[in-house]
Amino acid sequence: MTMEIRKLQYSGKGTFVLSLPKKWLEKYGIEKGDKFGIVEMENGLYITPRFNETHDRTATIGVTDYVSKELIARYTYGYNHVIIKGPISSSERTVIKDTIGELLGYDIIEESEDKIVITDLLNPAQLNTFKTLRREFFLASLMHSDAVSAMVNHDIELARDVIRRDSEVNKLYFFTVRQLRTALQDTRVADSIGVNSLESMDIRVVSKAIEEIGDHAAAIAKVVLQLAPLDDGALIGRIQDFSTLAEEITKNALRAFLETDKECGGCVLRKKDEFYAIKDRLDEHVLSSAHAIHLRNVLENIKGIGEKGIEVAQLAYKP
Fold first, then answer.
1. What is the pLDDT of residue 27?
2. Topology at the third CATH level for domain 58-123
3. CATH fold of 125-314
4. Which of 131, 140, 239, 263 is the most exposed place for a label (fewest CB within 10 A)?
């Protein structure tokens, strides 16, 4: 980023003029009569030429072992079109299509043996970021409760369904990252999605925490696929209570963050010691179970869910 110090000139009759360096005019093709957009921001004024233009970004990438990560990177950095050039094997094509399935708005518009053309059918500015965040949390929280229910009732189909739903949470996380990065480059997008630059970092952290709640829920569901039916009613009840506490922590934490409710956030943080104490007692209880290894795995993931809520609650404290 280059800064130039320019002096505001008074040209008479109440008019002030700010001159621009010639090299900037040449670099951006600015000519006499061109219009500028001026936006008042928290830390000053933002001035930009061609404020009413849309910018299409196209990337061309090759097929490598990292094609999935390359594709996600182009998506989250706001590329509207991605061209993947091959040759593309059947397994690589599957990886590419599975990745596109987790990228909200991306779709294949052209496909051949040695090329796949992807375009973005959804404008990031069309959805409010906070609504996206709430939707992401609703899906992840439901995955959590369903995963524990699948364990209690030994419901294999429900467990498999929870695992499938993880991609929907991932899709909303990647979309949120895309929105925030686009907003940092374009103030119009920031206005449309309802965030400012100072909020962007916290929203990114919260969205990632929610995505990890979904990962923990999917991990519990995967344990259920390996677990025999449980017959210790007392132990099952205590695990359910621990899970309920984790769910309560995450729900109140998100509310505290969204409403900047420090009292609610403080209530969540005060439950931290109780939460860990319950986990320690449950660890001892499951040692005598025939399913100790699997149940310890379940407990660790429920603990992980609660910890994500505690992380989010800390962000409710804003000046």
1. 73
2. Translation Initiation Factor IF3 (3.30.110)
3. Methane Monooxygenase Hydroxylase; Chain G, domain 1 (1.20.58)
4. 263
